[in-house]
Specification:
mainly alpha; 156 residues
């Protein structure tokens, strides 16, 4: 089950990213990326998270003397979550959903500020590969134009 779900979520994310990069950003395409991409990944994450955390499937407790229960309060507890295939898939799906949402926001923000697609590609690629890095550099680049747009709007 987990390998198939991992493959599905990766494929879904790649198709959504390709649509974001290559298709016209008309309302239908943006909605498809948001709902068939981001929302579906969030739904998969939510269901799998509930199943794994409740212990219904793939319980995540590391075996051995002094077994560590999974949780978020310490490094060993977080490590225990990722010690199972279910934990890896839900963690990866989490990254896929948030990185895609962030990429969608960057693209919309760049479009609104008049940045062309070629300028956007490095930021979107960095977000796809290493989420926060792409977002960080986009925030740095957008700041100057955001201030200029705000000043122009205030002058009217």
């Amino acid at each position: 089950m987990w390998p198939a779900l991992f493959t599905f979520t990766n494929g879904l994310a790649i198709v959504a990213w390709l649509a974001l990069l290559l298709l016209p950003r008309i309302a239908l395409v943006r909605s498809a990326i948001m709902f068939a991409g981001v929302a579906l990944l969030c739904l998969i994450y939510t269901v799998c998270f509930a199943l794994v955390v409740s212990g219904s499937v793939d319980p995540v407790v590391t075996a051995g003397a002094g077994a560590v229960k999974s949780g978020f309060g310490s490094i060993p507890e977080v490590r225990a979550i990722f010690a199972s295939d279910g934990g890896v898939v839900i963690g990866w799906t989490h990254y896929l959903a948030f990185d895609l949402f962030t990429g969608l926001w960057i693209a919309a923000d760049a479009d609104n500020k008049g940045y062309g697609r070629l300028i956007q590609v490095p930021f979107l690629a960095a977000t796809f590969i290493a989420g926060p890095i792409g977002l960080f550099f986009w925030l740095l680049v957008r700041e100057r134009r955001a201030r200029a747009v705000a000043r122009a709007a205030g002058a009217r």
